[in-house]
Amino acid sequence: MKKHGTIIGLGYCLPENIVHNADLEKLVDTSDKWIRERTGIKRRRILEKEKPSSDMGVKAAKDALKNSKTKAEDIDLIIVSTESPDYLTPSMACVIQDGIDANNAAAFDLNAACSGFVYALTVSDQFIQTGMYKNILIIACEGLSKVVDWKDRNTCVLFGDGAGACVMTSSDKPGIINYDLGADGTKHKAITIPCTHFDEDELFKRNNKRTQVIFMEGREVFKFAVNAMTASVNKLLKEVNMNIDEIDWIVPHQANMRIITNSIKKLNFPMEKVVITLDEYGNTSSASIPIALAESYEVGKIKSGDYVVLVGFGGGLTWASILIKWA
Ligand code: UT7
User: Fold this and answer.
1) pLDDT above 70 (res 160)
2) Using DSSP, how many helices (H) and how many strands (E) does the chain show?
3) Residue 10, Cβ neighbours under 10 Å: how many?
């Protein structure tokens, strides 16, 4: 019988430290009004400087294991989605494996920027369909405060830290129904965090020639995001002959409220069925979708039998959407 990936438990972790828009007024020339009106963000969580981001991943992973009633030793594979790892090597997946004692798991990181969690779900489902693995732990873990230039108002007001996780297991029924992944590498300069190579162009774009910090062409990404999200969700549903009115919830990447409302309007979908956490946590890159998913499940919004669409976009530029029938 054909095997399908099914999500059986969710978890998340947010740092305790809350940074309000008013706090940022002391760092850069900005205002609470501008940030709320242009982005929808009111506050974000920021990890203590001395802590590694993987601490959040370990907590989110433990939460997902507990909620799915899965033992760490029964996990066959750990995939971590991150664009802000503690190390280039080892992978964050190995660090988290150690933190949760998942001694029988293979482990690797995946970087598709903010689309990473949906990419990781897709990869996991493929491993399950081939029968190679039974239980997979997927964690999206982002410590963006460590790669933000706190003197750059164009970016520092947008991002926050956090981690979200889920356990996917092999099942006879879907589960995961369909996915759409994509990338447009011609736009790879639109969001960059240089790592080992710093060309003049990248240095010029940053304050004081700072290197390992985020640069983003906000307007270009904005336009791309609305088009990519809309096209991806339409393709996702068309391929399985479903209509948007059959969908119970959309959980979009939380980057900008105007991106979300514009795309949702184009999809002709009611805003009441869209999960929003952006106001509270800002943009936590690939962690934003699993955090929003876990919170909405926790408060009883998403229920068994619901059709849920997750849709992300980000650096690369990449996009990804997935359709799930909730177990
Ligand atoms: O998750 C990864 C994907 N990232 C995204 O999805 C982000 C996509 N882009 C966006 O969300 C928006 O483009 C931004 C929120 C980044 C910027 O909003 P915008 O409406 O596109 O603003 P803008 O870049 O066109 O800038 C408008 C003005 C500029 O001033 P001038 O040139 O008109 O005088 C900026 O310098 O707003 C200024 N500005 C600010 N003003 C106060 C930019 N950042 C700030 C700020 N506070 N923090």
Assistant:
1) yes
2) 11, 13
3) 23
Question: Domain total for the chain?
Answer: 2
Q: 11: helix, coil or strand?
A: strand
Q: How far is the CA of 117 from the centre of ligand 1 (A)?
A: 25
Tell me the sheet residues that pair with 192.
Answer: 215
pLDDT digits (tens, 9 = 90+) for 270-304: 999 999 999 999 999 999 999 999 999 999 999 99
CA pair distance 281, 29, nearest whole angstrom: 21
Return the best residue to mutate from 118, 154, 215 for the ligand 1 pocket (most ligand atoms within 8 A of CB).
154
- Residues 167 and 182 grouped into a single domain: no
| Domain range enclosing 94 | 4-173
Asked whether the whole model's pTM tops 0.85, one would answer yes
Identify the CA nearest to 288 among candidates 320, 255, 326. 255
First to last CA, the chain: 18
User: In this structure, are 187 and 168 located in the same domain?
Assistant: no
CA of 260 relative to ligand 1 center, distance in Å: 16
Whether 136 and 98 map to the same domain: the answer is yes
HEC string for 79-109: EEECCCCCCCCCCHHHHHHHHHCCCCCEEEE
190 and 158 in a common domain: no
Q: For the domain that residue 308 is a member of, what is the CATH number?
A: 3.40.47.10
Region 54-79: mean pLDDT is: 98
